[in-house]
Write the structure tokens for this entry.
Amino acid sequence: MKLPPALRHREFRLFASGYLFAETGEYIHFIVQNWLVWELTHSAFYLGLIGFCEFAPRFIFGPIGGVIADRMDRLKLLIAARVLNLLQTLIFAFLIFAGLLQLWHIVVLVIFMAIVSSVSTAAQQVLVVSLVPQDSVMSALALHSTTHNLTKVVGPSIGGVLFAMIGAGNCLLIQSFTILLMLVTLFFIRPPASPFRRGDGNFVTEIGEGFSYLRQNHRVLITILTTYSNGFFGISYTQFLPYFAQEVMRVGATGYGFMVSAPGVGAVAVSFLLSSRTKLRGMRRLLLGASLIYAAAIFLFAVSPFMFLSIPLLAVIGAMQMSYRVLARAIIQEETPNYLLGRAMSLFFMDRGFGSLGALALGAFAAIFPVPFAVAGSAVLSGLTAWAIPRIPVKRR
């Protein structure tokens, strides 16, 4: 059997193996965190608030992280971020074991890690594609997403079972071990010499260069706006899965783990198809198609009262989310010069920031109206805006 192009390179294999462990731990953390919020509050609004705190810092720190990724050693930046991730997880575990945990503790820890992630995400994405030659970039992006979504299958499933068996604190200790494994692999990676430049200007000027490039490149602008739309109206459904698990499906924490895993199943299936490709034609049309199917599947999930229907729909949602994000990253990678790539990627990952705004708005709406109605309405808006954005007229320059 012929290996996908990216897996033929040692450094990428090292990174992918460490990332597999660390992201599995992250999804165990996700299960623990959101279920504890639900147990402490039994409030859809607070679930939305946690989603807001998790991704809102990307609006401020995401562009800064893009400049940092273009200025400094991306591997060292990623190592520092994982060390801080380990610290945050150990503090969370201590509060649980000591019986001191309150909602505000979770909010502070989530915001702290959101800032760290906002700064390091662009560096990680640029590092991934730097570990392979240009003809293997599409394969690397797809395999990176495959790894992420495989952990989205394994992590929540394990997390839901472990949460019921050994409790929240021990789950976080297991996550700490997975972070250590990631750090070990990072220390063994020897990336090729990076062409990043050490900026002499100020951060504001360099952030402005990123936004200026976005305005000038219509293809990249439309691509990123589409991901923002999908983020604001679509991604926030994930914050309300505890509600669907407890109040609609009646399946408890274990069932919630399987619901969180289901999108990863679909994502892995699609990403395996993409990982063997070096090039795709009509990426903008594929991006639009994936976005529309994504919105339709979220709508159908919101109105479904049955677990046996909801799980396949969640798998479709995951497949389309993975598809549109890999396609968007491939378009940005193809269009953007390397010295701006960190900033372009940081602007792309602000879609999670828009997801935080969507989660907060949806949480407030769900505090007044039924949660399924709110999620279904948001899905309709997601589809309409995804269809409209590519029709934004081009300003000739």
Summary: The chain has a mean pLDDT of 81.
